[in-house]
Amino acid sequence: MNPSTNTTPRWLLYGATGYTGVLIAEEAVRRGHEPVLAGRSREKLAPLASRLGLDRVAVGLDDMRGLVSALEGLPLVVHAAGPFVHTSEPMVQACLSAGAHYLDITGEIPVFENTFRHDAEARRRGVVLMSGVGFDVVPTDCLARHVAEKVPGAHELDLAIAAVSQASAGTTKSAREGLPSGGFVRRGGHLRPWPMGKGVRRVRFSDKERTVVPIPWGDLVTAWHSTGIPNITTYLAQPAAVARALRFTFPLLQKLVAVGAVREQLARLVEAHVRGPDEALHQTGRSQVWAEARAPDGGRAEAWLEAPEAYAFTAKATVRAVEEVLAGALRGAFTPAQAFGADFVLSIEGVRRMDLSA
Ligand SMILES: NC(=O)c1ccc[n+]([C@@H]2O[C@H](COP(=O)([O-])OP(=O)(O)OC[C@H]3O[C@@H](n4cnc5c(N)ncnc54)[C@H](OP(=O)(O)O)[C@@H]3O)[C@@H](O)[C@H]2O)c1
Q: Is residue 207 located within the same domain as residue 305?
């Protein structure tokens, strides 16, 4: 139930039968929501809808009329069907047409950029567009905003993630879509190519120090919107040998996935073997995030987050973001931290933040 209105939140969950879609549906029900489950496969939707006692609608993303009609009477869509470079735009268009808010769980840089391109139209249509309401990018986005608020005039922002989890098939496919573009950083307000494997360093997380390597995380777009800091590097913790080897292995990987037959074989292997974390890992896996903002005058702030396992976190953060959007009066394209503030992440069960300012 929504305590402010005493009504049961009803919204559309597209991609409900995917690994993460199921987690979001279960979390929504746990918090008293009644999402309508949607996706392209009637057969896959039926057992899930019946297990959770929810309505369902089968519609493809190539059926604009069907999408708009599925949205009739519903205020919001959570889009959980990725890779979003292929799926986001039709759903954004359906939402703009139907006057429904759009939230997704992407981590893909081109998708964040595309969502912000629709800002003016979203304002005109009176809806919110928000990409990245999952693990990518809620914890990093909120922590980036938090350290930026402590350092007026900050010109550099570093973010690092260490996650104990296992990628799902959908995440693996989305990462593969990003492979050809390679690495990026933000410099002088612009996205700049960055060779993968360059810039390996050590970062002190809240539990221990780890080796990290720059990776093109969604915050290269979102933290720029949330903080205005023009120089941003996003890092991922990796075993030191893997991080250093990336300089040589990454170009090889890029060449391999450029070959159609290899790509197809890889897709089959991912479908057959990549499952995402199991229930035990949901319960025990922890995620660590670190952020540091620096100003030219020497001002500096550092902060850390500890959060639940990334997919468990994604389900919780998504449903909390739905509640905030439905309760608020925002219109336009936003990052989670822009819309809800740096402390939003603290409203998610199991999250802890620590600070150090100089
Ligand atoms: N931000 C984050 O931290 C975060 C966390 C988790 C997941 N994700 C992202 O969320 C996406 C889904 O991940 P997942 O783990 O749930 O993957 P998954 O288990 O492979 O599920 C993907 C879902 O998307 C649907 N789908 C894919 N392409 C579609 C299309 N063209 N039209 C309609 N439906 C389509 C699939 O439907 P079918 O079953 O019919 O193929 C399935 O329901 C990925 O892009 C992943 O990277 C992000």
A: yes
User: Which tokens go with 135?
Assistant: 């693990």
Distance 105 CA to ligand 1 centre (A): 9
Specify the pLDDT at position 357: 59
- 44 Cβ inside 6 Å of ligand 1: yes
Let me know if residue 5 belongs to a domain: no
83 CA from centroid of ligand 1 (Å): 6
What are the beta bridge partners of residue 288?
Answer: 162, 306
Alpha-carbon span 330 to 332, nearest angstrom: 7
| Domain interval for residue 199 | 138-311+350-357
Q: Report d(CA 212, CA 235) in Å as an integer.
A: 6
Give the model confidence (pLDDT) of 194-229 as tens digits: 999 999 999 999 999 999 999 999 999 999 999 999
- The domain spanning residue 39 has which CATH number? 3.40.50.720
Q: What is the pTM of this model?
A: 0.95
Rounded to the nearest whole angstrom, what is the distance from the C-alpha of residue 91 to the centroid of ligand 1? 14
Establish whether residue 335 lines the binding site of ligand 1, counting it when its CB lies within 6 angstroms of any ligand atom.
no
Instruction: Report the number of distinct structural domains present in the chain.
Output: 2
Point out the residues of the chain with pLDDT beneath 70: 1-6, 357-358
pLDDT at residue number 98: 98
Residue type, 54: L
126 and 205 inside one domain: no
Among 51, 20, 31, 97, residue whose Cα is nearest residue 39: 20
pLDDT for position 3:
45
Angle at 289 between CA 288 and CA 293, to 5 degrees: 155
Long-range pairs of 59-66 with CB within 8 A, sequence gap ≥ 24:
61/87, 61/90, 61/91, 62/90, 64/90, 64/93, 64/94, 64/97
Burial readout 311-336 (b: 16 or more C-beta within 10 A, e: otherwise): bbbbbbbbbbbbbbbbeeebbbbbbb
State the greatest distance between any 2 C-alpha atoms of the chain, in Å, as a whole number. Answer: 60
Residue 42 phi, psi dihedral angles, 5° rounding? -55, -40
